[in-house]
Automatic annotation (TrEMBL):
Protein name: Unannotated protein
Species annotation: freshwater metagenome
Segments of this protein annotated with the region Disordered: 264-285
Length: 300
């Protein structure tokens, strides 16, 4: 390769594609993000568009290629490549996926190359997917949190927001690079019950795909993941029921979860009341007058 990536052909003309990002090797409890990306790639029938230079971005001692031996014959080496692929969802929306191992080096160069490609392809939004372990029960819906350099985008997102200092991943670097280039970028993170974070948890992948749809309009079927989640729920229920200590832990987590939900509802109600009292929201009379004006305009 003469540059940071190699194209597999001319860049296609895409209509406002969404770029969905997930890197292996970074935080992804229960591999929920990877499972969501697999469902997305299968549903969108993605095809390779560009492959990034592994010699430039990958440490082979940390991510060695896989050697396939067949009766002693070294048939081939499978390299860990970072790929940009393109496809369409079932509704015809253009989708780009950026997947593979998280780069080991030259993050700024990588972010610049991705941003360049995104602008050439007309990307209008980027979303990254991930999952992290959290003290929550498997008997309740997994919550999502979000990240973005854009305060406006965060303010309009219905997901939880955190205040803390943590090590950043490549997806966070892309959030900044793309936002600075004018492409709104959002990180979606689903919470995984900490006691199941080492096993698959399809329910969280469903939550990520729903969140992706809410944020971008990308429509990815997740019926198979829902069926897998039902089976997994039954297995976990059986494990918990067979151990009194585990059952007590889950009941405690349920109480904490439900308390947090009640507090969130109360805070939303208080905020709405304050906005109404401050005059930020229209009154009933204002809405009635607006409706009357609308009817008059229709008659004219």
């Amino acid at each position: 390769m003469s540059g940071p990536y190699e194209l597999h052909g001319p860049l296609p003309a895409l209509d406002r594609p969404v770029l969905v990002v997930h890197f292996g090797g970074w935080i992804d409890a229960s591999a929920a993000g990877a499972a969501a990306m697999s469902a997305l790639a299968a549903s969108c029938s993605t095809e390779p568009l560009a492959t990034f230079d592994s010699d430039l971005f990958i440490d082979y001692r940390a991510r060695r290629p896989l050697m396939e031996l067949r009766d002693g014959v070294n048939t081939r080496l499978v390299w860990n490549d970072i790929e940009l692929r393109h496809g369409t969802d079932p509704r015809g929306n253009a989708v780009l996926t950026l997947t593979g191992p998280e780069p080991d080096s030259q993050w700024k160069t990588f972010a610049s190359a991705v941003t360049q490609l995104a602008l050439q392809l007309g990307v209008y939004q980027m979303v990254s997917l991930g999952a992290y372990p959290f003290a929550s029960p498997h008997t309740r819906a997994s919550r999502m949190s979000c990240t973005s350099p854009s305060a406006d985008l965060i303010a309009n997102s219905p997901y939880e927001k955190s205040t803390l200092d943590v090590p950043a991943g490549m997806s966070a670097v892309l959030e900044h690079a793309l936002t600075e280039a004018g492409v709104p970028s959002l990180g979606l993170w689903v919470q995984i019950p900490h006691y199941v974070s080492a096993m698959s948890y399809p329910a969280a992948s469903v939550v990520l795909l729903r969140g992706l749809g809410e944020a971008t309009g990308i429509d990815i079927p997740y019926h198979e993941l829902e069926r897998e989640a039902l089976v997994q729920r039954q297995r976990i229920d059986q494990l918990v029921e067979s151990n009194d200590e585990h059952g007590a832990m889950v009941r405690q987590l349920e109480a904490l979860y439900d308390q947090a939900e009640r507090q969130a509802v109360q805070q939303a109600a208080d905020q709405a009341r304050d906005e109404l009292a401050s005059g930020d929201l229209p009154t009933g009379d204002d809405l009635a007058a607006e409706f009357e004006r609308f009817l008059r305009d229709q008659d004219e």
